[in-house]
Amino acid sequence: xxxxxxxxxxxxxxxxxxxxxxxxxxxxxxxxxxxxxxxxxxxxxxxxxxxxxxxxxxxxxxxxxxxxxxxxxxxxxxxxxxxxxxxxxxxxxxxxxxxxxxxxxxxxxxxxxxxxxxxxxxxxxxxxxxxxxxxxxxxxxxxxxxxxxxxxxxxxxxxxxxxxxxxxxxxxxxxxxxxxxxxxxxxxxxxxxxxxxxxxxxxxxxxxxxxxxxxxxxxxxxxxxxxxxxxxxxxxxxxxxxxxxxxxxxxxxxxxxxxxxxxxxxxxxxxxxxxxxxxxxxxxxxxxxxxxxxxxxxxxxxxxxxxxxxxxxxxxxxxxxxxxxxxxxxxxxxxxxxxxxxxxxxxxxxxxxxxxxxxxxxxxxxxxxxxxxxxxxxxxxxxxxxxxxxxxxxxxxxxxxxxxxxxxxxxxxxxxxxxxxxxxxxxxxxxxxxxxxxxxxxxxxxxxxxxxxxxxxxxxxxxxxxxxxxxxxxxxxxxxxxxxxxxxxxxxxxxxxxxxxxxxxxxxxxxx
Length: 512
Hints:
alpha/beta
């Protein structure tokens, strides 16, 4: 026979389960109201499961879409409220399970890689499945935990009993009222959690997405050829194709096209950045290299989505006030996994004979237990650091050939000119060439004994991905960092997958 303590524990656990699911539903509904012009259209139009015809028919009708959006938003809110406070719980649980089933079969996790890793490779059992099973359990369990419904029933029984006897029932009535108050605790709990969410949104802005708000392009993911190979940098196992952060940050090496950076920023809204990152992770890219100023955005993304993407943050010294560690500490505070001394600054510090700054920064990073990289555009920077014994956990070097139209003649190239003063003379540097002396870079890469990540391998869009990635991997890169828009991700992953399967001309052994 169940003891009183066991009964109380069971009620508490069921209540917490019900409240957790209820809050999830409620939060999803409120986010959709707050998000301007939210619609389930893209969610329905991009479905690729065996029931996709049904979902596509809904998205094809503007009138039906209005109904679907209304029912989706307010269905989530009503189900969430009823589950959280505990009223008509079984009806709410049935409705919630049905809604989750609709979500589940829109993007069924059937046929994905059974032995893959990450959220995009779940097979049959995903979060929607588990949550629906929990709701079905609530439907059939005898006890729904502490709830407003139970408090209402107790109060009704007390009123009925008093009307029959004409007087209160003393101690029994007091116990019943206490029991009723216990059942009503979910209401103030909802207020506390709601206030916390409101305060958080004021501080960090409204989350632009949650799990059911934005979906990655499953139709594109279905075209993936396989899982990206991985390598190791320091203690981190990462995909050999790494996402670049310039497009997300709005930096465009666009020669003399002055509008392109603004265009990048206009396209990559916060919502689009989230979609791009989710798609990249689902496609097997598990690491991104970002500029320092993008750290808060990545921290927010990881907080909002539960993402496990590894963040490589570029860091630079503050030479004005002599604080070499300001950005290092800031990146760590934002949760960066790997720190890399930024390429421009490595070049400038070597050029200006201030390599001791690089050494101090690298030492400070290692003292924090963080993997450290050293980036450069000019190979002379890395050669000089190597001569001085300044060896990072990995190098990041611009790696591309110069067989493209906008590359200026070799005889006019000068070390350390990258990211320097641009010239109006087409035969001189104008944000157009980032690996100035490819053969010198290849020589350095092939003799170094630490991992190398190639970046600018497409010369900022001047070289085709298949050409640029193959050149970098064949000439010794262990990883390549490529800036990608969302519509380029799956194609680039497939290109990297094909190249890494067949590299007959690579001479350097793999490091990492």
